[in-house]
Amino acid sequence: MSTQAATAAARRSKITPERETELYDAVLRLLREGGYDSVTMEGVAALTKCGKATLYRQWGTKPRLVTAALARRRCVVFGGIDTGTLAGDLREAARVAASHHERDAGLMEAVAQAYIQHPDLRAALRETVIAPEIASIDAIVARAVERGEVEAGNPAADLVAPAFLGMLRIERICEERFTDTSAMRAFVDAVLLPALRATG
Amino acid sequence: MSTQAATAAARRSKITPERETELYDAVLRLLREGGYDSVTMEGVAALTKCGKATLYRQWGTKPRLVTAALARRRCVVFGGIDTGTLAGDLREAARVAASHHERDAGLMEAVAQAYIQHPDLRAALRETVIAPEIASIDAIVARAVERGEVEAGNPAADLVAPAFLGMLRIERICEERFTDTSAMRAFVDAVLLPALRATG
């Protein structure tokens, strides 16, 4: 091992899990406050008193650092939902979505912005942010099929997850129509549940 | 009238409707090709051989110029649809959305980007780009209520337009799930139509 490589390995090993969490938190804070463009290696280094060289050595590029921070966050919003009924699960998802939106609207906005502006980030964002949410909603529907609440093969089953996320995205664009946080609940009750029970 | 004001009025009057169309086309071309950030007063001036001073005098700011260009475009995608039945109208909207998406994905992407990045543009974009589409879909549903196809007061009625636009927005994010252009058609048939007929 060259002296240089040994030094690099030693330095890298200095990043403890706590330190890593601190770095990721700084990335998410910058994302939340100023959007993707406001995240810079310099900014993260300054916030955490971490050497810029360490950031580059560990994560290589800004997209990789941001993706790692979002992936580590692991806050799959719809992940833990399991009330025992389809209506209960989807209503809980609507409730969680509304409170999450309020709590972390800045971060969600930054993710949406990065998604649109930086095609190189899309695959990573899909994998770390979008796919787990889709999988969680798919699981809600799959359990309802298993329980016999939804007929297997109902053509709406595959559309629930994208329709739910789409409605969530459009909600703010149509905000003059939805003056309270119950738009998602209304969507569940008036659109998704009837569609899922429409056949059979 | 001061000499200065008279000169300004004379200059302004030199912008013929044809010239205006040419300027708006240049704005939309820049938007389509490089997104909102690539639209500059300099770029539009260079493309059209128009004086930059004229652009500033006439439109004041870039957001106002972009908004005017989008508003003049007047291509309300769902505007002319009237097949005589609810299913026919919504299926036609799905078909038009798919072909429009393909044809003008670059411009739609640029509008979405501008919407997210530039809060000062949002009100204008809502009014010129989003509201007319929502109104067109609302009109489809309203006609179905008049014809008795949908019960008045069906709680899904108000949600059709946002759900449709939301699904359209999310479609590309979930594109591995929707490998053809029929996702919107499936959404109409399996989700919207059953929901609209679910009560009553």
TrEMBL record, chains A, B:
Transmembrane segments: none
Keyword DNA-binding: yes
Keywords: DNA-binding, Transcription, Transcription regulation
One GO MF term: transcription cis-regulatory region binding
InterPro entries: Homeodomain-like_sf, HTH-type_TetR-like_transc_reg, HTH_TetR, Tet_transcr_reg_TetR-rel_C_sf, TetR_C
PROSITE patterns, alphabetized: HTH_TETR_2
Protein name stated in the entry: TetR family transcriptional regulator
